[in-house]
Write a structure and sequence with these properties.
Layout (H helix, E strand, L loop, with lengths): L1 H14 L14 H19 L5 H28 L4 H59 L4
Helix pairs in contact: 2-3, 2-4, 3-4
């Protein structure tokens, strides 16, 4: 994977005359966008079925890996886009992330008590699935686009 990523960065920079663009950081988000919903589904349905304790832990590990990959790529992209005002841009992203962290516990207990863990996680993943698909297609379009 690293070999292909390094090759992509080298080809992209040589086409741009040695100058990198912030969009060159986005293809690294692809594994994270796949790991996050897969991990959510594994965690939810294995907890619903009361399987062995390691199965939900594997799902949580996939969720954690997806979150970390996406978080790092988003932060580096924001820093590359807004170099002069990077601290303010990161503060705005942190504020939005904190609002999501505040809002989710307001409806999550009712959702999970009504639907259970499996259907609740499926509902959460399916609501964000169109966003993930559009972002992934956008990343693939940027990856294959002519950077001139």
């Amino acid at each position: 994977m690293r070999k292909h990523w390094t090759r992509f960065m080298f080809i992209s920079r040589t086409k741009m005359g040695g100058v990198g663009k912030p969009e060159f950081r986005l293809p690294a988000m692809l594994p994270g966008t796949l790991l996050l919903p897969i991990g959510c589904l594994i965690t939810g349905w294995s907890a619903q079925a009361h399987t062995h304790w390691i199965v939900p832990d594997i799902g949580i590990a996939l969720v954690g890996a997806g979150i970390v990959l996406n978080f790092q790529c988003i932060q580096i992209y924001i820093i590359d886009c807004f170099t002069l005002h990077a601290a303010s841009a990161l503060a705005a992203i942190c504020f939005l992330r904190s609002l999501a962290g505040f809002g989710f516990p307001l409806f999550a207990p009712a959702m999970y008590s009504a639907l259970g863990f499996g259907k609740g996680d499926t509902c959460s993943c399916s609501r964000s699935y169109p966003d993930r698909v559009s972002c992934t297609l956008g990343i693939l379009a940027l990856w294959g686009a002519n950077p001139e």
